[in-house]
Amino acid sequence: MKPPVEIACDESGYEGEKLIGGVTDVFAHAAVALDEEAAARCIKELRERIRSPATEYKANHVLRSKHRPVLIWLLGSSGPLSGQAQVQLVDKAYFLVSRLVAFLTSTDTTLAADLYAAGRSTGGPAWGAFLATANNLLRAKDLPEATTPVESFYQAVDALTLSEVEPLKYSRPYADQVRAGLFDDPRGIPPLDPLMPAIVRAIEYWGQPDRTVAIAHDRQTTLSPDRIAQLKQLTGNLAELELVDSFSHPRVQVADFLAGVARKIASDQLKGTDDAELTTLLRPYVDPLSTWSDSSSWHRLTS
């Protein structure tokens, strides 16, 4: 067995299970394969180019318009990340819809994409209410006795005048079971938390049949010892996941830069704002198996 592939990971836009009504509409999880020396050189170069007095540099430093040349250098083919990084993009609303369809129906997988597309284009205010109640329905952190998420969800379903929502109208017999199941195992993986699937995907991306993956990850309270053990069981290819402080780990700082930049560019694309130059530079890093369905923004991000 070869030594593990060592990667460093960080995220941007993470709000736990709150996928709707939060600060961000896109979640990005970045992984970089730079070694410590290369990452330290990258951070040193960023400091020399940006010249900010900040103690710790973050993605928002290179996202400022005055530092655009620095961002172009960072993502460019001659920059430090070329061939050494990957970022998974998650459209939170689509992630929610796909999870909802998976839990409540046995229909083919196109329903989630069709419903999402119809909701975005013609759903109007009722679409927003539908997403909010769907989020509440599948949130494991809500106390089951504190709210009536099932009733609220089906009221929102009835108010949504889209043909694509019809299969969900017949799913109520499953909804109470699903809701109750969220609390059967308090150590279970929350269905709407995008972080765990993102780490699983990073392991798949970087690992090999004869080579495991060792991850240094920015600290997250959700990555408990139980969660890390679950990741090892799920993948069978995770050698180690160490939680570190990004302030003292250049490799994780570099991952933070990529995650933050990618989230901002992808979010702008989802809103229809196209920065062609930056989008082109981001393309080599975008994971083709990202959780994304909007065809026009995806085409710009990947083609």
Which features would summarize this protein structure in a list?
2 domains, Nucleotidyltransferase, domain 5, 14 helices, alpha/beta, globular, 303 residues, five-stranded mixed beta sheet
As an assembly, this protein is single chain
* Number of beta-strand segments: 5
Q: What is the CA-atom radius of gyration, in angstroms?
A: 20 Å
The spatial strand order of the largest sheet comes to 3-2-1-4-5
Fraction in helix: 40-55%
Overall pLDDT: 92
Written overview of the protein:
By secondary structure, the protein is an alpha/beta fold. The chain folds into two domains: 5-91 and 193-302, Nucleotidyltransferase, domain 5 (2-Layer Sandwich), CATH 3.30.420; 92-181, no CATH class. 50% of the residues lie in helices and 12% in strands. It contains 14 helices and five strands. Strands 3-2-1-4-5 form a five-stranded mixed β-sheet. Helix 11 (225-235) links the parallel strand 4 and strand 5 (238-244). The longest helix has 21 residues, at 250-270. The model has no long low-confidence stretch (mean pLDDT 92).
